[in-house]
Design a protein that fits this description.
The complex is a heterotetramer of chains A (320), B (385), C (462) and D (329).
Chain A lengths: L11 H23 L2 H18 L1 H4 L21 H5 L6 E2 L4 E2 L10 H36 L4 H15 L2 H12 L3 H12 L1 H14 L3 H8 L4 H37 L10 H10 L7 H29 L4
Antiparallel strand pairs in A: 1-2
Helix pairs in contact in A: 2-5, 2-13, 5-6, 5-8, 5-9, 5-11, 5-13, 7-8, 8-11, 9-11, 10-11, 11-12, 11-13, 12-13
Chain B lengths: L1 E13 L5 E13 L3 E5 L6 H8 L7 E10 L15 H5 L11 E2 L5 H7 L4 E4 L13 H12 L5 H14 L16 H12 L6 E5 L7 H18 L2 E6 L2 H7 L2 E6 L2 E7 H6 L4 H8 L39 H5 L5 E2 H7 L12 E2 L7 H9 L6 H6 L1
Helix pairs in contact in B: 4-5, 4-6, 5-6, 6-7, 10-13
Chain D lengths: L5 H28 L5 H4 L6 H10 L6 H13 L5 E2 L4 E2 H36 L4 H14 L3 H15 L19 H38 L3 H8 L4 H39 L4 H10 L3 H29 L10
Antiparallel strand pairs in D: 1-2
Helix pairs in contact in D: 1-12, 5-8, 5-10, 5-12, 6-8, 7-8, 7-10, 8-10, 9-10, 10-11, 10-12, 11-12
Classes of the chains: A mainly alpha (320), B alpha/beta (385), C alpha/beta (462), D mainly alpha (329).
Chain lengths: 320, 385, 462, 329
């Protein structure tokens, strides 16, 4: 097999020469991406959420253990009955305490919870999206490359079967089997969400493998692996990035839905759990400051993934 | 009798970064009634753009910048019972109708031109094979065109006419109830031609009418077009890159390059008395089936991009005969016969005469001899100039 | 006269056949659905000699591209053998195949599809070298690529090495495709319509380049094209294909100046020419190419053929037979049915015969009555149809009007027959070439085409 | 005039049936792999070993697993779905009662979604890149990103809690004072279904729009769209009659995918609104390990998807005359 060794460059100059055109290409792609306003908006939202998840302490006014009237742990005093009755407390700016988005029924600051929960959603979205791409893209590639053989047929029948299983209930079963942890939720989402990815990649592969550049690689004696990895995959990856973004968005919503149904890892902080709490503690219509922010955060996070995904679709669309 | 008179027509495509593609630049030509006129040129020379612009069918970012398209015919509501423009319309300064009753298509609104499309000017698009809508019966698509422009016709009458039209182009009338996918390539092309004749237009624009067809079918379609022309007296504006097809069917033609007309005149003149370096180069690079030993010579370089071009001759970068003047401004159309007889350059006044846009047609004999020499066209020679 | 004869052929193709199965899923197989294969190439034999440019011409769907792809092992033949330099390429060891891959290359039609959009020019051209471990290290490889780039007229090479295909023009792309084929220094290149997507003014440059490189690299080409004038310009020898069959092959000039097969004749008649002057003859052929999924029996071309052979004992003219045979085909295709007769206002069987005897051919070949009626009928009295045949036709037309198409077909199948539909013509030596047509089978049919059939025995010995 | 041959249909039905068999087997395995079982809740600490054994026997749990599997598969062929331990009724009766309620909710959202979605998609695709397209498209993506239970709460909050216009739960008025006539029942159902449908369609239409928009945009480059314009037809006719009609074809395929999306949505919405359908019991039965009910609900939903796939094929042949299923050319 051809090795990449010779190409890694005998001198720095050739490496630079080899990479220059690729960097140039990326730059052009970036320019086209930024033509889309929603793509830029999506990116900005995502950057904010990323910062929240990496350094929540910088943005949050309190820790998640902070309790109204009492403050940060260690907790030494208890709330008075009157104080308890005032919870959940609407937004307050210094009087009697500082909580810009109010508190929940336990007295935790909503804003702090919101910011500390970003990490969970981000993790689930990216991990589930990545995982489902890792399942869907290779299967789609194989299915398309060996199109019209038993391999393809088997994969497609399997996809048919999976489509017959309703996503959310199936997810509940999967999570129930393995126990409710964040990791299991991610695996469950990935197992159920790779289908679209697989089908699209398959279709793209089917058309790509008929291109004459693939045929000329074959004429030159290229092996199947070389054709898949050098000629088909690089042309499929942009589309699968689009699906990664969409799957990530779907995962964020799916996790919230699971939390609503009571299937969430309640040791973690998440927007879904904040909403589950408001339902189970019965404050849906009484505490808008508690109801709205987590929902909006979920929406913005999912939307930012969609925004990025659809803008990228335009950039990668060869028709332009 | 002139049917169509295109004067100094310039068409631009706006690009996001603010520049514009000069797809057609001050193009003039005219088509007589009953004749076949050809626009020949390579891809990207602006021929298709030009044809589409006549009936305002440009893509969204394309627009007519300046020029007139005088057409002998007018809107139904402006016409008297003979189909000529009413005197009141001619006199009305707000309406783009000239003394002789010709209407300026370029000045019509989109809504107005819609009434003239197909009724006066039918256009067969480049991808005629995909021009039939796959989800409707072929006959119904012809009926649609008839009913659009002749609302007084009943459906049954329109159906009969559709079947009759199909039969005239050699398709069994029963096939009117078939869908396009049940037609072979040649039949689709014939069906589109039948559809084009549905409202007996005065002008038929055929954009690459035979490009996707096999040669035997192409032969039949060319015959079909000739027959229809005899039968309906329609003028045909053909657009093609295929010089041999054009040579066979056109009475007159214009050779386009880079959005400009380089040479125009009767077909015999263009091929027999070629008077432009580009046409000479094109002839050199085109193989013919009849001659056994020929040497093909291609024109070096590639066509210009037409994005905000400089004022010089569009062909000069590939032209072995370019001189100082060519860089300053694109040459106007010079009268070839005049230049040949007098040896002086005189701008052509008659659009129908043989004209060529080149500063050097006063030394025509020399150009023709040099053009036959292969060395003239080598890259080095042009670069060393 | 034929300089190829005394040299060893580089490529020998013998009885090559390729059927494409319609895709079949497991379920179809279980349920026993009959596959109906596309007969892309159906029994082609051809020798290609070292240093030749052999042209393959034909209309779309004639199997020329499939043939080319089999020669470079992109498709496996269903039947038949391809020998390259004496070795059967269908039975090669791994090692032999590696060697073969270095010696045989292909250039594809569409330069916008034949280069991977995500690979630079250098990567594209160097790929065959890498795959075949040919030139040692990066620098040597780069030098080799530069050299090939200059050879194909893309100099200075530095400008192109790191460019991506979308930055290049069509002509430049095709030159790069040629460079990729040349970089391994092959012996044989299959060129599939290499210039059909290029502009006229660029085309000649690429063709001339290919000719120059042939000398420089000592190449043999198979040049596939639908454009006969290009075949004439490029090729020493040519083969004409129709529906998977090779109908005629031989020296290009001979074939073009004096076509023997009726299909070849029609094909050349159909080509328009820039040369002004005399009016060109139009192609005398009916209808269009049928589907390769269900090709006609016997000679593939007979339903369209102008010289279709009447049966023994036919005492009318050949033209009358051609019309009668077309009548039969129309009934078979369902073009003539009680329904269509109704809509065309056809009153009786006679009128239906007159309608059915028309030929869908250019006007110059039509009969007077046909022209007058706009191609919708011929006067039965004015064509020389034997009385018996005429009776059969009227009977059949009567059956058609009664809605009994089957019966009509049975009658016609018995009376209107031709050797062309029953037997498949074998390639026969005819003059300098081979022709697969019954006209050249036996001397008995010579009078049908007296001008061309006389030379047949000349090259029968080789 | 349909272009589906009987043989093709038979083949498709066989395939669908096989698919269902595999889905059921998969379900059997998965459900049995969940920790715990419904009898855990029936067994109290005071029971004797014998009592426990009897309970196990009643529910067929003493047999080996492969036997249970065989029984399950065979029983389903005869329509015997077994008894529900938690609802204490025949599962089949439960399904018969609940399925129509789900279908009402489901069908109406599906229909509304598939009218609004392609219609919006048609406009956006036709004017792709315009300011209007950009703003509507990004808004719809925002809607698509909302968790369905959350948007349901917001609707309940506004229309029930604040405005007191519409009921927030159940399918019927709980203690009706009105006469039970078909009309009053229907009106009552419509009154109750309004909020669930609003919540579902508010998000649901986006799926089909996302498919329609790009295909519509591709279709604008087709030769027949150009020709339709060249014929002098108005932009509206060109868009609706020539372009949209063709762009609808891929949307039919997408219907199956958005169906899956809708099932998820209705599972949540039924739970929020206490709508007594399948979505409500599918969650509770899984959580309570009520295997017979869980199996049956999964099965019914799978049947729904499979039937929809078949229907899509039929719709396809009506939309696209080029497609002819099951006949060699």
């Amino acid at each position: 097999m051809a090795t990449q060794q010779g190409d890694s460059g005998t001198d720095g100059g050739s490496v630079r020469r080899r990479w220059e055109p690729r960097i140039e290409r990326l730059k052009r792609g970036w320019d086209r991406y930024t033509e889309h306003r929603i793509g830029v908006v999506g990116l900005v939202i995502l950057v904010v959420f990323t910062l929240w998840s990496i350094i929540p302490g910088v943005f949050a006014p309190h820790s998640t253990e902070w309790i109204a009237y009492i403050g940060e742990p260690p907790i030494e005093s208890r709330l008075t009955a009157e104080q308890v009755r005032s919870l959940p407390h609407p937004p307050a700016f210094g009087d009697p305490f500082f909580a810009p988005l109010g508190t929940n029924a336990n007295g935790n600051g909503i804003l702090s919870l919101l910011i500390y929960s970003a990490k969970n959603a981000m993790y689930i979205g990216l991990a589930a999206g990545l995982l489902s791409s890792l399942v869907g893209v290779p299967l789609g590639l194989i299915s398309g490359f060996y199109g019209d053989t038993w391999i393809d047929e088997a994969i497609q029948r399997f996809v048919d079967i999976m489509y017959g299983l309703p996503f959310l209930p199936f997810l509940i079963v999967l999570v129930a089997i393995r126990g409710i942890t964040t990791t299991n939720i991610i695996i469950g989402i990935a197992v159920t969400s790779w289908l679209n990815n697989c089908i699209t990649v398959r279709g793209e592969t089917l058309s790509l493998k008929e291109r004459s550049y693939v045929e000329s690689a074959k004429v030159a004696g290229a092996s199947d692996t070389r054709i898949i990895f050098r000629h088909i995959m690089p042309n499929v990856l942009p589309i699968s990035f689009v699906f990664l973004a969409q799957d990530a968005a779907g995962a964020v919503i799916a996790q919230a839905s699971l939390a609503y149904l009571g299937l969430a890892d309640f040791t973690a902080n998440s927007w879904g759990i904040m909403l589950e709490n408001i339902k189970s503690q019965g404050y849906i219509f009484d505490a808008w400051w508690w109801l709205l922010p987590p929902g909006l955060a979920l929406m913005l996070m999912a939307a930012s993934f969609y925004f990025i995904g659809f803008s990228m679709e335009d950039v990668t669309n060869p028709q332009r | 009798m002139t049917l169509l008179e295109v004067n100094d027509l310039s068409i631009r495509y706006a690009i996001d970064d603010g520049s514009a593609v000069h797809a057609s630049d001050r193009v003039s030509f005219s088509v007589d009634r009953g004749e076949t006129y050809g626009l020949v040129g390579e891809s990207g020379c602006g021929k298709t753009t030009l044809a589409k612009s006549l009936v305002h069918l440009l893509d969204d970012n394309g627009y007519i910048e300046s020029g007139n398209v005088w057409f002998d015919g007018t809107l139904p509501q402006w016409a008297d019972e003979n189909g000529d423009a009413k005197q009141s319309v001619i006199d009305d300064p707000d309406k783009p109708v000239r003394e002789d009753g010709k209407t300026d298509l370029a000045a019509l609104t989109n809504k107005q031109i819609r009434d003239m499309r197909w009724r006066d000017i039918a256009i067969i698009p480049q991808s005629a094979m995909n021009a039939l809508n796959p989800v409707y019966k072929v006959g119904d698509q012809i009926v649609e065109a008839i009913l659009r422009h002749e609302p007084q016709t009943t459906k049954a009458e329109a159906h009969d006419r559709a079947r009759d039209l199909l039969e005239r182009v050699g398709i069994e009338p029963d096939r009117a109830d078939d869908y396009a996918h049940q037609f072979s390539g040649g039949m689709k092309q014939r069906a589109v031609i039948a559809m084009a004749m549905a409202c007996s237009p005065d002008l038929l624009i055929a954009d690459e009418p035979t490009t996707a067809l096999d040669v035997i079918i192409q032969d039949r379609i060319l015959e079909e077009l000739e027959k229809l022309q005899d039968e309906f007296g329609v003028s045909i504006l053909v657009i093609s890159h295929d010089i041999s097809v054009m040579a066979e069917i056109c009475d007159r033609m214009a050779v386009m390059y880079g959005g400009k007309v380089m040479e125009s005149g009767r077909t015999e003149d263009i091929f027999g008395e070629t008077a432009n370096p580009y046409t000479l180069g094109l002839k050199n690079s085109f193989p013919t089936i009849t001659s056994a030993d020929q040497d093909l010579v291609s024109i070096p370089g590639t066509p210009p991009t037409l994005r905000d071009p400089d004022p010089g001759c569009r062909f000069r970068e590939r032209c072995p005969f370019a001189i100082e003047e060519c860089h300053a401004e694109h040459p106007p159309m010079y009268d070839v016969a005049d230049a040949e007889s007098t040896g002086r350059l005189r701008e052509a006044t008659d659009q129908r005469a043989h004209g060529s846009a080149c500063y050097r047609i006063d030394e025509l004999e020399q150009l023709r001899t040099d053009a036959l020499n292969e060395d003239t066209w080598t890259e080095q020679r042009i670069e060393s100039r | 006269m034929d300089r190829a004869e005394d040299r060893e052929p580089l490529v020998e193709i013998d009885g090559l056949r390729k059927l494409f199965d319609q895709s079949q899923g497991i379920i179809d197989t279980v349920l026993g659905r009959e596959p109906q294969p596309v007969r892309a190439v159906d029994g082609v034999s051809l020798d290609i000699h070292k240093g030749d440019i052999v042209g393959i011409a034909g209309e779309s769907g004639c199997g020329k591209t499939t043939l080319g792809k089999m020669l470079v092992k992109l498709h496996e033949p269903t039947e038949g053998a391809i020998r390259f330099d004496g070795n059967d390429i269908t039975e090669m060891t791994r090692e032999e195949e590696r060697e073969f891959r270095k010696r045989v290359q292909m250039i594809f039609q569409d330069p916008f599809e034949s280069l991977n959009p995500r690979m630079t020019v250098y990567d594209t051209i160097a790929e065959p070298l890498k795959i075949n471990d040919m030139v040692g290290d990066y620098d040597a490889r780069r030098d080799r690529v530069k050299q090939v780039l200059e050879d194909v007229g893309l100099g200075p090479a530095e400008v192109y090495l790191d460019a991506f295909p979308d930055e290049l023009s069509g002509g430049e792309r095709q030159r790069i495709a040629i460079a990729r084929a040349l970089v391994v220094d092959p012996d044989f290149i299959v060129c599939d319509e290499p210039v059909s997507m290029l502009d006229v003014s660029i085309r000649a440059g690429v063709l001339n380049l290919m000719k120059e490189l042939q000398d420089e690299y000592d190449l043999t080409y198979l040049f596939i094209s639908h454009d006969l004038s290009l075949i004439r310009y490029m090729c020493d020898r040519a083969g004409i294909m129709y529906l998977g069959n090779m109908v005629e092959q031989g020296p290009t000039d001979d074939i073009i100046d004096d076509p023997k097969h009726p299909y070849t004749e029609a094909l050349f008649d159909a080509v328009p020419d820039v040369e002004l002057g005399e009016e060109r003859r139009r192609a005398n052929a009916t209808g269009e190419v049928p589907s390769p999924r269900n090709p006609p029996s016997g000679c593939r071309y007979h339903p369209r053929c102008a010289h279709i052979i009447p049966p023994d004992g036919w005492d009318g003219t050949q033209e009358a037979f051609r019309r009668a045979y077309q009548f039969k085909l129309k009934v078979r295709r369902g073009d003539l049915s009680a329904e269509s007769a109704e809509s065309a206002d056809i009153a009786d069987a006679e009128a239906l015969v007159e309608h059915g005897l028309t030929l869908d051919i250019p006007e110059e070949y039509r009969s007077e009555t046909e022209i007058e009626s706009g191609g919708s009928k011929v006067d039965i009295a004015r064509i020389d149809l034997p009385p018996a045949a005429r009776e059969t036709l009227v009977d059949a037309a009567g059956a058609v009007l009664d809605g009994d198409t089957e019966g009509a077909l049975a009658t016609l199948d018995e009376a209107i027959t031709t050797p062309c539909e029953s037997r498949r013509p074998e390639p026969q030596p005819a003059g300098t070439r081979e022709v697969a047509c019954h006209l050249y089978d036996e001397p008995g049919f010579e009078e049908l085409d007296s001008s061309t059939a006389g030379i047949a025995p000349a090259a029968a010995e080789d | 005039m349909t272009r589906i041959s009987g043989k093709y249909l038979a083949k498709r039905i066989v395939v669908s049936y096989l698919t269902l068999l595999v889905i059921m087997s998969l379900l059997f395995v998965l459900l049995r792999s969940m920790p715990g079982s419904f009898i855990t809740s029936m067994i109290s600490s005071g029971m004797t070993a014998e009592q426990i054994a009897r309970i196990r026997e009643t529910w067929g749990l003493n047999e080996p697993l492969w036997r249970q599997y065989l029984n399950f598969m065979i029983n389903y062929q005869t329509g015997n779905f077994g008894r529900s331990p938690t609802y204490n009724t025949q599962v089949w009766d439960l399904m018969i009662r609940r399925m129509p309620r789900t279908l009402v909710l489901f069908g109406s959202t599906f229909i509304i979604g598939f009218i609004v979605g392609p219609l919006v998609g048609m406009y956006l695709g036709w004017w792709r890149g315009s300011r209007k397209d950009k703003s509507i498209f990004s808004t719809s993506l925002l809607l698509y990103s909302m968790p369905s239970f959350w948007i349901s709460w917001l609707f309940i909050w506004v229309f029930n809690y604040e405005l007191d216009l519409l009921p927030s739960a159940y399918m019927f008025t709980q203690f009706p004072e009105f006469q039970w006539t078909a009309f009053t029942v229907m009106r009552d159902v419509l009154y109750h279904i309004a909020l669930p449908i609003m919540s579902l369609t508010f998000i649901g239409w986006v799926g089909s729009m996302l498919i329609m928009r790009p295909t519509m945009n591709q279709v604008t480059d087709e030769g027949y769209v150009f020709l339709a314009r060249a014929k002098g037809l108005s932009e509206r006719t060109v868009m609706v009659k020539h372009a949209a009609r063709n762009a609808l074809i891929p949307v039919a395929t997408g219907a199956v995918v958005s169906l899956a999306f809708l099932i998820d949505g209705s599972v949540i919405v039924e739970n929020v609104f206490n709508w007594p359908g399948m979505g409500q019991i599918i969650v509770s039965s899984v959580l309570n390990r009520d295997f017979p009910v869980a199996q049956a609900t999964f099965f019914m939903l799978a049947v729904l998807v499979v039937v929809m796939r078949l229907l899509t094929d039929v719709i396809y042949t009506y939309l696209d005359p080029r497609i002819k299923f099951g006949e060699g050319e």
